[in-house]
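SUBJECT: protein chain
CONTENTS: sequence, structure tokens:
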Amino acid sequence: MTFGHAGAGTHRPKKSLGQNFLVDGNVIRKIVDQLAIEAGDTVFEIGPGRGALTRVLAQKAQRLFVLEKDRDLVYALKAQLPDLGCILGDGLDFVWETIGALPSLKVVGNLPYNVASPIMWEVFSRVCPFTSCCFMVQKEVALRLTARPGSKTYGGLSVWVQTFAVPRILFHVSPSCFYPRPKVDSTVVGFKQRPFPAVDHAKLAQTIHLLFQKRRKQLGNILKHVWSEQLEAWLEHEGIDRRARPESLTPEQFVTLTHCL
């Protein structure tokens, strides 16, 4: 498809980009309502697709920007909405720090299933500040995002996202609300930003990966190659047994552990 021949509404989904377009008007309105857009807000949408959500956002937001990887869709959206700030780019290598300067920022997106987790990993650790955020993801991912310590679904993504934000499941979405229909249910998750922790993000990521690569092993076993008096004091201060496993640690404990390593 090219700019001169078709609009975003007739764009054929590209399986290579994981495109499943939201087509249900009620779901779109619920997402927009959750953002609670006010005068002066800036909305940044990730992956607008055919623009079903974008068109409703454009009626509410004073400033609206979208990040879209599909060049054909960018041309079509710009033709429909001339005032729209369209950015042709990939969420996996976008310079996310740049949008933190936008006034009263609200972030939203129906994220492609195949890249949702890595995009959120980047967004929450690099965009600051935002006033609200709302993402649609695969239901399984939503359960991981909101999982509590000690649960089977609690893992690296849970720790990382909850270090920077407070996630909350808002509502579930049926496959019938998309074209083409995905094979799984989706969930809309809302996020409230937390103050950035005083920790090196790269080192925190290393700690998370180190522990969850061996999540069934005990902390004493996983950390034996870096064992120290400082680590022993940390365990005592936190009231943690060295036989505990990684999924028992809170996001805050991952941060303080990182300072010891």
